[in-house]
Amino acid sequence: MLIGILLLSFVATALQRITGLGFAMLTAPFAVVALGTHEGIMLITALAVIASLFMLPGMWRDINWSRVAWIGIPATLSIVPAAWLGAHIDGAIIYLLVGVLVIIGLSAALFIQGSSEPVTHRGAQLLTGIGAGAGSVLAGIGGPAMTIFGVLSRWPVASFAASLQPMWVMIASATLAGRSWFMGSTLPELTWWMWLFAIVGIAVGMWAGQRALGKVKDRVVFGIVIVLAMIGAVLSVVTGISQLV
Known about the structure:
Belongs to the 4-toluene sulfonate uptake permease (TSUP) (TC 2.A.102) family. The chain is an all-alpha fold. It has one domain (2-244). Helix content is 83%, strand content 0%. It is built from ten helices and no strands. The chain has helices at 2-19, 23-35, 37-59, 65-86, 91-113, 122-139, 143-153, 157-183, 192-212, 218-244.
């Protein structure tokens, strides 16, 4: 099962290189089932940092640093109270709440997308950051909040994908610290060759995603982003239900 998760990181990295997100949303639910909530989220979060660091140099010129600051900083700051809250609430309930809220929020965003002006104000960016940070530390998925803002703001795909990478480095690093300090989470004890296997898989996945760039239309890419976010939300609900049962 663990090897399967490491292999899945290859696919997730390729998708993240194209869309900007998807790594944690695809891999976290499986890692939680295989390793438990604490070690599963810690592993995927650590791999997410590596994946985003690999991608940063090639995407640097498209990064919107203003949005990185207005979304990434609130996301990082929200992790401390969210981690404290997570230490006092049943993990299954957290997964259910996160999943249901994302499904409702994303559905609403899609419904109003074509009937309103783009939503780009600072308040929306702050709320996006808080949602992404809380979702990351509580359930290992911060991408849906970003997707909702991406839909409402009609963020150009290239800038959206690039700008998320420094945000993921910030959010994932803070998540590792927050979960370790407040929730007692630890990384699983992997052998050196498993870490090497994961890093190579991430590098190859990034190369595959890079090769696919320009061959997929922006509308299709954002469609994939929306589907990934919805899959992440549904898997979060399923994970919560399975833990309750």
